[in-house]
Amino acid sequence: MKTDRSDLHALLEKHMDKDQQLVYKQLEEPNVWQQYIGLFRGKNKWLMLYANFWVFLGLGLFTYSLVQFFLVTDTKDLLLWGLSSLLWIFLVAFVKLYMWLQMDKNHILGRLRQLEIQLTLLLEEELSD
């Protein structure tokens, strides 16, 4: 299967000009860190910066609440700090889930662009024959 895929890539690159090859190479599968950094590009980078602010704030407040939970002895305070810890860790989890969904969306869009380029090249080849 891998040879078929690399053969397809070689065939496509043979029919592309330099600009198309550059765009096609940019659509290669990025690793996790590249996907994470990719969240901070485009129109919604302000939203991701805002989300990261809440993640770091939530982690800090979760840690503080957890430390306070283990230091207090009164039942009312235990409930207060325990619920506060849960609230902050849930906030962090939901924001991270949103970010992972955005990474997945960006990955799927990249694959669709790659497929679009492949289809365009194949159609051009068919029409020229």
Structure description:
- With 129 residues, the chain is an all-alpha fold.
- It has a domain at 43-117.
- 86% of the residues lie in helices and 0% in strands.
- It has five helices and no strands.
- The chain is rod-shaped, with a radius of gyration of 24 Å.
- The two termini are 27 Å apart.
| Rg over C-alpha atoms, rounded to the nearest angstrom | 24 Å
Contiguous low-pLDDT stretches (5 residues minimum) are none
Sketch the major β-sheet. none
Count of extended strands: 0
For the terminal residues, how far apart are their CA atoms? 27 Å
Fraction of helical residues: over 70%
Oligomer: single chain
In round numbers, the mean pLDDT is: 86
Q: What structural class should be given to the helix and strand makeup?
A: mainly alpha
Q: Beta fraction of the residues?
A: under 5%
Helices, by number, come to 5
| Cα shape | rod-shaped
Helix-strand pattern: HHHHH
Helices and strands, with pairings:
Blueprint: H1 2-15, H2 18-26, H3 32-38, H4 45-71, H5 75-128
Helix pairs in contact: 4-5
Question: Short description, anyone?
Answer:
The chain has 129 residues and is mainly α.
Structural key phrases:
5 helices; mainly alpha; 129 residues; single chain; 86% helix
